[in-house]
Amino acid sequence: MVKIEAIIKPFRLNEVQEALVNLGIQGMTVTEVKGFGRQKGHVELYRGAEYQVNFVPKLMIMVVVGDEQAEKAVAAIQKAACTGKIGDGKIFVSRIEEAMRIRTSETGADAI
């Protein structure tokens, strides 16, 4: 099993969700996060005064998939989240050793 964490622009969530559902991926967790990378924040104007916003709002999507779906899921996220502009985000892939569905005690791939 593989855990895929993607940090994306908030307005791309529907496209990413649709792409994953089309692959048959049944669940995802979405968290509102703030951060910066090469984008390094931006300057905003509030009541005539400029101020630096160091942390840019993003969404972090987390899905756990079987090994056979991992490559397709990463490609689908990349394609759906890409705008071609700075700040599109990152995708991180990690191995998952074990998973358990709490309600039924199913483990491994059956749990996802």
UniProtKB/TrEMBL annotation:
GO terms for cellular component: cytosol. Gene3D superfamilies: 3.30.70.120. The modification O-UMP-tyrosine is found at residue 51. GO terms for molecular function: ATP binding; enzyme regulator activity. PROSITE patterns: PII_GLNB_CTER, PII_GLNB_DOM, PII_GLNB_UMP. Keywords: Nucleotide-binding, Phosphoprotein, Transcription, Transcription regulation. It holds the Pfam family P-II. SMART domains: P-II. GO terms for biological process: regulation of nitrogen utilization. InterPro entries: N-reg_PII, N-reg_PII-like_a/b, N-reg_PII/ATP_PRibTrfase_C, N-reg_PII_CS, N-reg_PII_urydylation_site. Belongs to the P(II) protein family. Homotrimer. PANTHER family: NITROGEN REGULATORY PROTEIN P-II (PTHR30115), NITROGEN REGULATORY PROTEIN P-II HOMOLOG (PTHR30115:SF11). This is Nitrogen regulatory protein P-II. It comes from Desulforhabdus amnigena. The lineage of its organism: Bacteria, Pseudomonadati, Thermodesulfobacteriota, Syntrophobacteria, Syntrophobacterales.
